[in-house]
């Protein structure tokens, strides 16, 4: 009985919440809506915490990648530094891949801009880009029939 009622309630709530209000709800978790600068500072502070471990870094990154936004270069750099502090190069590369995927349809313009902004940090930390590793092209992919 409880399961049926909970299912109906979830369906009713799912129909009333639109896409824009979900994003607003995520941004309003702390009581008031925060500006973009405050949002950036909050996540920079989160990734810069002393004693942060790999699980907490992954949680912060997953939370950011689950939102309807592309992280700012400052947040990307803070995430890279946090991954480097716990000595997890794979996490740093996956973070770059996730940020690239979040660019969506604007990947041709937005991703090069992000790389330009974060390239000094990448060089400082010794983190290679996805393109340097060859991860941007599938290794065993067949040529497209349209390219023949």
User: What global shape is seen?
Assistant: globular
**Portion in helices:** 55-70%
The separation of the N and C termini measures: 60 Å
Structural class: mainly alpha
Q: Please summarize the sheet with the most strands.
A: none
Number of helices: 8
Task: Estimate the strand proportion.
Answer: under 5%
CATH topology label of the largest domain: Serine Threonine Protein Phosphatase 5, Tetratricopeptide repeat
* Helix/strand order: HHHHHHHH
**Radius of gyration from the alpha-carbon trace, in angstroms:** 19 Å
Mean pLDDT rating: 83
Level-1 CATH class name of the largest domain: Mainly Alpha
Poorly predicted runs are 16-28
Number-wise, the strands total 0
Number of domains: 2
The named CATH superfamily of the largest domain:
Cytochrome c oxidase, subunit Va/VI
Protein name: Cytochrome c oxidase subunit 5A, mitochondrial
Pfam families: COX5A
Family: Belongs to the cytochrome c oxidase subunit 5A family.
Subcellular location: Mitochondrion inner membrane
Describe this structure in words.
This protein has 148 residues and is mainly α. It has two domains: 1-33, no CATH class; 36-148, Cytochrome c oxidase, subunit Va/VI (Serine Threonine Protein Phosphatase 5, Tetratricopeptide repeat, Alpha Horseshoe), CATH 1.25.40. The chain has eight helices and no strands. α3 (36-47) packs parallel to α5 (73-85) and α5 packs parallel to α7. It is globular. InterPro entries: Cyt_c_oxidase_su5A/6 (IPR003204), Cyt_c_oxidase_su5A/6_sf (IPR036545). Pathway: Energy metabolism; oxidative phosphorylation. Belongs to the cytochrome c oxidase subunit 5A family.
């Amino acid at each position: 009985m409880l399961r049926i009622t909970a299912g109906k309630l979830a369906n009713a709530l799912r129909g009333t919440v639109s896409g824009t209000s979900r994003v607003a709800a995520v941004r309003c978790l702390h009581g008031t809506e925060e500006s973009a600068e405050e949002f950036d500072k909050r996540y920079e502070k989160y990734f810069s915490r002393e004693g942060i471990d790999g699980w907490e870094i992954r949680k912060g990154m997953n939370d950011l990648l689950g939102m309807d936004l592309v992280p700012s270069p400052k947040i990307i750099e803070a995430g890279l530094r946090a991954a480097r502090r716990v000595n997890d190069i794979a996490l740093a590369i996956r973070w770059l891949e996730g940020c690239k995927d979040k660019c969506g349809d604007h990947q041709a313009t937005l991703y090069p801009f992000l790389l330009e902004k974060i390239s000094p940090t990448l060089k400082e930390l010794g983190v290679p880009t996805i393109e340097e590793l060859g991860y941007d092209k599938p290794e065993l992919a067949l040529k497209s029939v349209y390219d023949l």
